[in-house]
Amino acid sequence: WEALWAEGQKHGACAYGTESMHVLRAEKGYIIVGQDTDGTVTPNDAALDWAVGKKKTDFVGIRGLMRPDLVAKGRKQLVGLKTKDPKVVLEEGAQIVEDPGQAIPMKMIGHVTSSYWSENCGRSIALALVAGGRDRMGKTLYVPMPNGTIEVEVTGMVFFDEKGERLNG
């Protein structure tokens, strides 16, 4: 480690842990397959349809991507969430509802897939799968918890350096 660290210092390297790596990837909206997605999430649901070849007439999976249930309106889509109180960090797996005053059992419209405190952003950030997520941008949703209901705003998935100026600069 000491030899590796000494060599790295010559090149401006820094040490970091896996939790830091998780926060950094979430700040940029980079997903973890299997955490932010599951077997039901399509590239479009994850805002990754840009990676699917539009000019290709055939490829493995093209028929599946055209199934009516996989292109239906209101599907769960990956979005960002910001808590109204920036100090509150959501629990991963927490359920999301549209109306916190509805009768129990409440209709759940999604869940938190990743959630962190971001020192770069000075606030908590989260990714979530939410029914019709992209159509809910700027809207307030609710996360009912045992100690009270947490208000969240639906946002884009990139929380830090949205325009990519640091990445591409």
How is this structure best described in words?
The protein is α+β, with helices and mostly antiparallel strands and 169 residues long. The protein has one domain: 2-Layer Sandwich (Gyrase A, domain 2), CATH 3.30.1360. Helices cover 16% and strands 27% of the residues. It contains 4 helices and 6 strands; from the N terminus they run αααββββββα. Strand 5 and strand 6 form a beta hairpin. The longest helix is centred in the first third of the chain and has 10 residues. The model has no long low-confidence stretch (mean pLDDT 93).
Radius of gyration: 19 Å
β-strand amount: 25-35%
Order of helices and strands: HHHEEEEEEH
Give the averaged pLDDT, no decimals.
Answer: 93
Q: Which class best fits the helix and strand makeup?
A: alpha+beta
Principal-axis shape: globular
CATH class: Alpha Beta
- CATH architecture descriptor name: 2-Layer Sandwich
Return the CATH topology.
Answer: Gyrase A, domain 2
How many domains, in number, for the residues?
1
Task: Describe the structure using short key phrases.
27% strand, 169 residues, 4 helices, Gyrase A, domain 2, alpha+beta
Quick structural summary:
The chain has a single domain (20-168), classed as 2-Layer Sandwich (Gyrase A, domain 2).
